[in-house]
Structure formats: C-alpha cells, structure tokens
Amino acid sequence: MLKTKVYIFVLSILCLITDMSLAATAVFNVVKLGAKPDAKTDSTQAFVKAWNGACGSVNSAAIYVPSGRYLIKNLLFKGPCKNTNIIIRIDGTLVAPSNYNVIGNSENWVDFQWVTGVSIYGGTLDGKGTALWACKLAKKKCPEGATSLSFTNSKNIVINGLKSLNSQMFHIVINGCENVYIKGLMITASGNSPNTDGIHVQLSTGVTIMSSGIKTGDDCISIGPGTRNLWIEHIACGPGHGISIGSLAKDLDEQGVQNVTVKTVVFTGTQNGIRIKAWGRPSHGFVKGVLFQHVVMKNVQNPVVIDQNYCPRNEGCPNQVSGIKISQITYQDIQGTSATQVAVKFDCSNKNPCQGIKLENVKLTYRNQPAVSSCANADGSAHGVVEPAGCF
C-alpha cells in the first residue's frame, strides 16, 4: 500500500515535469537571472534569485538550468514556500569551488530546508572533493567537508536522473523527511575517498531509492536512526562499503529503524554487502522488520554482517555491550562470492541477542569452495539451501 501511494505521487510529479510549458507554470531561467555557464563566474546569486521567485510564486513554478558549468558556492533553498510544486530542471553542471575551504566548513553545499513538493530532474553536481580527500588522507588539518545535496525537514520530494561526482563528504542526505522518491542516480567518487557515503537516510519515513549506480569510498547507502518504511531496489554498488543500517547506538535515546526492504542489489568488490552495525554501548534504539532479497555478491569481503560490537579505535565503548535490539531480519535469495572465508557473520550482543533471524536460499562461496559462517548470540532459522550453514 505504501509503495502504491509513492508511485501515484511520483507519476503526478513526472507528468508536471514533462509539461513545463503550462501557462500556469512560472519558469525562472538562471541564465536570464545572471548565471554564467563558464565554470569561472560565481553564479550563486542567480540561483538564489530563481529560488526566491519560484518559492514566492502563487502558481506552480520551474527553475531551469541550461547546459554549461556553473560555479556555485553555498546554496540554501529554504521554505516553507507559497507554492508546493517547484520543479528544478537541470541540463548543466553545478561546480563547487576548487578551493575546498570555501564550502568545506559549511556542512552542506546545496541545502533544502522545510520545503514541500520540490522535484529535481537531471543535472550534475561536481563537488570537487579530490583535494580535500588528499588532505584528509595525508592527516593534515582540513575542514570536515560539505554534503553535496541535503534535504532536511521536507516532504513530497523527487530526485530523478541526477549525477553526483566527487562530493567532499556525503553525496546526498535525507534528514527528517517524508515521502521522498529517488531514481536513476549515478554517484561517483574514488574508492579511497573518506566519508563519501552515496545516500544517507535518517529520521525519515516513506523514502524510496530505485535504479541507481553508486561508486564511492564509504557506504553506498547508509541508514540512520529514525528511518521507517524505506524501500531500496535495483542498485549497483561498488566500490564502497555496501549498504549499512547504522552505525546505531551513538546516543542513548535513539529512534529505531523499522520496515526496511533492500532488494535486487548487486555488490561488486565492496568491503561489505548487507550490514547492520551498532556501537557496543547502551542505547534504547532498535532494528526491526528488515528484508534483504535477491542480492548478488561479487567478490565482497564481508557479504552478510550484523555487528553489535562496533567500536572503532576502542574509543567510547570498551567493556560495554550494545543496547540495540535487533529482530525480524530476513535474508532471502542471497547469492555470489565472498573475498574472505567468513561470508556470514552475526556478532550480536550478549545482553540483547539478535532475534528472529531468517536465512532462506543463501549460497555464498569462497574461492569456488563453500564459505563459512560465524555466529554469536543470534537466534533464528534456516530454510531451503543455506550455504554457509552452521548458524541455525
């Protein structure tokens, strides 16, 4: 029912996108407002003018970005707006400043807050993050970096056909949002780029991520606390760290993750495949009702992982146990190859063991031989062919 509602909403938005000639639609062309597609002239204010015009319009509105490369500093598109139907059609590329310090301490580069009914169609975001990654990898003093595209406290959002290149940090963040549809994204960053998660979702409900390719240096998709009713389908991931729920238990009073579906995903050469990870320390959070279905692993280091003892650098969590409660997790039709001998690892909390883990038709091999499993404090069942066996 949820998915049907999302599709009806998306179809109505796409119909509007394809008919930008409607008399009732006000079109704000950034070039006509002063933007220069030369990748050198600061065009930030032209985009701000376009947003102000569209946000203040009493009719449906469209922002149009013609082909070319536009140098953009920080953009804040803030609502609430008079109009709840703003289409942003991008035929060009938004380019971040080459000096990473210009946006590197700002948290977000292109930032939407408190908006309703915004649709982004097409376009490329070039975050110019390579110099900042090099600074971080050299352990020099660097800014934290900016997320390329962020939506906060917003609803009825569509992101369709966008490309994101070389983000300084996360490529896309969905935070505190409702009813978000993401499709046809191409996200690209170096495999050793730090903290460049492809799409991060937290404190949000009714998010759908479809038919996208993600190549990055961190999680292809990361799922944070407070995420409910999340649907992920037809994703190609790699390089990267896989699709991860967590890290959870960062805070004691933390919202749970519930009703997540991840299906028809291919992981190629990733560090992890499908992972749930929680800090080994107290928390009131939980993970409940997750389905991983029709997943292919191609030379993945850790294909199936639940880690409730996550404690990098042994800081803030030694000698503690995770309070996160993990239950009703189903792995169905998981196939492919592991780059390490242990293909299935459930390292659950001895205080809050994993409950209701279900393995069904799982076949993972290591160097053309059966892989092995490692399971601690996990209760569940196995159905059909399950290789590696041994957990239940």
TrEMBL record:
InterPro entries associated with the record: Glyco_hydro_28, PbH1, Pectin_lyas_fold, Pectin_lyase_fold/virulence
Subcellular location: Secreted, Cell wall
Record-annotated active site: 241
A single GO BP: carbohydrate metabolic process
Keyword set, alphabetical order: Cell wall, Cell wall biogenesis/degradation, Glycosidase, Hydrolase, Secreted, Signal
Top-level lineage group: Eukaryota
Family according to the record: Belongs to the glycosyl hydrolase 28 family.
Protein name, UniProt field: Polygalacturonase-like
The organism of origin for this protein: Thalictrum thalictroides
